[in-house]
Amino acid sequence: MSDYSSQFLIVEVTKHTAVVTFNNPPAHTWTQQSLTDLRDLVLTLNQDKNIYALVLTGGGDKFFSAGADLNVFADGDKKVAKDMSDIFGQAFETLSSFRGVSIAAINGYAMGGGLEVALACDVRLAEEHAVMALPEASVGLLPCAGGTQNLALLVGEGWTKRMILCGERIDAQLALQIGLVEETVAKGESKAVAIALAAKVAKQSPVAVAACKLLIQKNRVMPITQALPQERQAFVDLFDSLDQKEGVQAFLEKRKPLWQNK
Hints:
The protein is of the alpha/beta class. The protein has nine helices and ten strands. Strands 1-2-3-5-7-10 form a six-stranded mixed sheet, with helices on both faces.
């Protein structure tokens, strides 16, 4: 446990990776406080130049996260609904904008907001027993934390409609086939595999990674004709960084680069 930990989020820092374990048993449901903690954690990690990657997983071996606790909405209070939807959006959109690489290690059920937090990550790994769904419409609600948008970006409109409109649950193997996750692993292995993948990120220039991620995600909001000139300008802008100079020199000198994230 590190100084970054809070009541609902256990944070361990391993070299350049922050491993975040959801800690609201038994199902790691989201609360206003845990969502606030996640938002604030990512904002803080963005300022830590030593952190290049972020791994998210659930405690135990049954739940990644079951999403929101429906007891919060039992009274039908619209103000509560607005407050929760706002903090869901703040938390997961902040996660999506994390300057480094975020990896979801889905180690069990990922339902509703539990899947949406994974959708906000850059990469998703799922253990073979994992089950994923966005079942909000079955209780008269809808995914309000990016589910309707981020899922469609990954799997297309057809599978998004099957999962949200038809309420289909997806197992790990099908999730891999439709592009919802990038890899499936054996039970109990997702955290280790995610950390190993995060270690690969540390071999890259964190300045270059941040620039690349920003460019990749521009396809969500602008046509390619606008993004391509920005890509070229970002390439030139990297020449203002110390990492660019170090990377080229290290290659020419046949040694490992010493990144400064500057």
